[in-house]
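Cross-posting from the modeling subforum.

Setting up a comparison between two proteins and wanted a second pair of eyes on the formatting. Protein 1 (sequence, then structure tokens):
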Amino acid sequence: MGGRPKKGRTAIRLYFKQHKTGCIIAAALLLICIVLGLIKPSQTELISKIPEQFKQESGTRYSQSDVNLWVVGVARGRNVKTAQTQTFIGFAGRIIDANIDAALDAELTALRAPLDEIENQYLAKKRNYSARKETYKQTNDPKDKPDPADKPSADDKAKLNEAKAELKALLKTEDNKSKVSQLSRQKTRSTVADIVLWVPPLLDGTVSTVTLTIISVLIGIFFSIFLALGKISKFMPLSKLCGAYIFFFRGTPLLMQLLVVYFGLPMIDKSLAISDPFTAACIAFSMNSAAYCAEIIRAAIQSIDKGQFEASRALGLKYSQTMGLIIIPQSIRRLIPPMANEFIMVLKDASLVTMIGMIDLTQMTFKISNSNATMMVYFPALAIYLIITAFFTFIFNRLEKRFSIHL
């Protein structure tokens, strides 16, 4: 009993010794985050920065959102009708104005207007010519043959290049250069504020995605054991039945299975209706995962040398004892890589639940994108998917190394 704590401390010291650089970096980052969190302005201070005049002008159309992410905070007031905002970021003991100067933005947009007009005309001409050329290629009708005069000419190209050169010269002046730099900083701050405000709802969606994945795969693994054993059973009716199940769920798209479970079952019988999208998704994903995991388990079991079965039989072991004590323990290390791949695939396929209205990470991204009229939210969503995929990949790699020791 007295040796266990010492053994644990030895293991911890050994771990720190092997990962010394990583531990130092992690400790430094943690210390920096603690300091930034302590000196960050409070949410009350941030909210108080939103002008009262703006709130009064907005009236009943005024809405407010604020987020505190420990090291950084954001407060935003919005006029719902005009889409005007007042945004402030609290970071490193400072309150940063994250508003875009509308007059400055309009002034620089006006400078680009001549180039945009010429560029749009040039691209429209190019698209129209390409479309007619493609149509003629398909129909071979002389009426659809494009006129070479409709193709953008060298003069059009020269005019476009001239407009680009003029804009470039205008933006090189000290005054305009300063304005461009100022607007760029404002837009960067505003984008950072947007991302901070998006993080909480995106994390809520992430919880739903990860929860659905874990539950579905665990249930799928549980049922897949019986499916795999049933398929390799010598009792033909059971083997055929399990084989048919696996064939069906591996041979049809997961999206179709999901739609059938949520929308199709009530059409067969109203008592089969599933009102909760999460429950319907769990059922569809679990049944699909069970089929794939069953094939993984079956292949792992059958990869064990037949001599092991014969030796077990010679020792007088029953079938259940052979499987539980000899075959399955040896199969585990062979199961981990394909099971990890199946888990990651289910994690990414979870985005299909948007088709039945379940709020997951992808659906939350759609909602934010539509309500804010921006595609920028897809970048943090992609980063979150990458992070959770990398996390679970790391976990499975550790498990694989742990079970790679020869039994």
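Protein 2 (same layout):
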Amino acid sequence: MRKVLVSLIPIIIMSAWLFGLRVLILLAIVTIAGAACEYAIMRYANGKNAKVSEAVLVTCFLFTLTLPPATPYWVA
């Protein structure tokens, strides 16, 4: 998963250059919400042994890249 995250970095940089910093803010919101949901579900399922996997970060990055730049934050 780390290789996929590293390969997505140039795409995110280019999208931030083309569409502005709103893309990075949207990425941060989606990543925080995704990681929080993953942690909550894993905490419920596994108790104190909850871990957030790297797969949720890949999912959040790809989800953000599929959204239009003018997407409201609450929709993401």
